[in-house]
Known about the structure:
Helix content of chain A: under 10%
CATH architecture of chain B: Sandwich
Distance between the termini of chain A: 37 Å
Structural class of chain B: mainly beta
Number of helices of chain A: 0
Shape of chain B: globular
Oligomer: heterodimer
Amino acid sequence: QKEVEQDPGPLSVPEGAIVSLNCTYSNSAFQYFMWYRQYSRKGPELLMYTYSSGNKEDGRFTAQVDKSSKYISLFIRDSQPSDSATYLCSGGGATNKLIFGTGTLLAVQP
Amino acid sequence: DAGVTQSPTHLIKTRGQQVTLRCSPKSGHDTVSWYQQALGQGPQFIFQYYEEEERQRGNFPDRFSGHQFPNYSSELNVNALLLGDSALYLCASSLGGKAKNIQYFGAGTRLSVL
């Protein structure tokens, strides 16, 4: 079993839709949870990070972590074509190495 | 504020050769981590450097080695290249302490091994 599982998609939505991206993880030692956005042939860009459980909001983006169910979510409101990218979830703990999911490819259709 | 910079952007090597990739961390960051990202996969942790020492290592062979300099910049060296080493190599930097997990990535070096 992979430490972080993520549906690879692709996920296609119309412009303006609410997008829900999800991951599950198995490592109980994870304390930090990150979402990265990666455009084609570019490096990952840190979108949001959360420490332990709870919600965090930044503009159109909301990250949620439920440690009891080991579930990580990213919501994108009012999605735009420029949001089309691969979204990577990751977890980290005391070892300071990040474990990533395979990424979900999102396409927002104008 | 310069972000994480990596050089070169692209490299083409042949099997058996050696390669050195370079990374300058984000201003104020002292910790550098290296990742390998194969096509269609998430990044995989290679190792992390802090205070010029390797602190953590992922499941990569000894052909992969690194170095961190006093100015916090870092190099990744790969010896005896294999076809399977073709990938995007990513450098990430972070602050020390608990913030080590909050890592910022560079654009990567795309290595092709022929």
